[in-house]
Amino acid sequence: MANQRAGILGTGHSYPEGILTNADLAKMVETSDEWITTRTGIKQRRKAAPHEYTSMFAVRAVRQAIERAKLDPSDIDLLICATVSPDQILPSTGCIIQAEIGAHNAAAMDVVAACSGFLYGVSLADSMIRTGQVRYAVVVGAEVLTQYVDYTDRQTCVLFGDGAGAAVLGPAEGNRGILASKIKSDGRYEEQLYSPGGGTRRKPSAETLAAGDHFFKMKGNELFKVAVRSMTEISRDVLEQGGSKSDDVDLFIPHQANQRITEAVADRLNVDTSKVYSNIAVHGNTSAASIPIALDECVQSKRVNEGDLVLMASFGGGVTWGAVLMRW
Ligand code: UT7
Fold first, then answer.
1. Residue 3 backbone zone (phi > 0: left; psi -120 to 50: alpha; other: beta)
2. Is the CB of 316 inside a 6 Å radius of any atom of ligand 1?
């Protein structure tokens, strides 16, 4: 049926057992628990072991989400994996997950939109469900970012962590489901957060490896301002599109990039801090996985309940940003 609103039918998440604390980092670079806590809100992050890779966490999160949606992997028509740390270049991590879980009826792919990847995926899945092209979709944000972190660069190495979060989307009941979504990007800001080496432009070689070109480089301070501005603007846009006011929001799940970014956006939107979800202290920034991990934590802890108005907003390298407003 065309124009059927999409809702989230099940969620799941997974992360590595390994923990990297601020105290561990203070032994590696010139930093301190005090600096990291006050400047970012992060106390620890999860770190994959050398034998672990992105799809391992994605598969666990996806299986959980499908089970909780009371579906079978064969019911899934579309599988989107949002990641900037794929298992390998070819095939997509989406296809690897598809094979692993047995979602043989799905079209599978990756979406590369950094920290906005999950909301990009949700927005795409929503559109395809609305047009009747697919019935059930799973969107998973999955990252092993610690592999791309330069542990001699104190500005970036304190931020990132690993994990995966997934959501199954399908036809929503009644007035529930996605009310509005919007995604945007601006490639002119490429060098604010990027990993220059390893592709066809700067080909992998002993030189690029030695220069650390495969690591994330970031202009944190500039990115901070763009993040606050664009997340605020796009949140206002979807609120307006959905015919809602920020006062109506019951739960705000922003991308977990920095606690100060979260607070600045919530403040500009006039969303009370009691309605803002944060898990950055324990997970750090897990890029595309951050919103779906947070969402699943909210579902499992009953922080979100039927009828609640949920706003999600993200910002990431590219730069990319997006927001989704939904009635739970
Ligand atoms: O996921 C989406 C993309 N990511 C983001 O949106 C991240 C956005 N940016 C940020 O979260 C923040 O800019 C950072 C956490 C990266 C940095 O915080 P900041 O408050 O913007 O610090 P800053 O870059 O202005 O640096 C302030 C000082 C500098 O020292 P001087 O030049 O004032 O002496 C830095 O060298 O803090 C220093 N510094 C550190 N000190 C201790 C930077 N990193 C560290 C560190 N430990 N880890």
1. left
2. yes
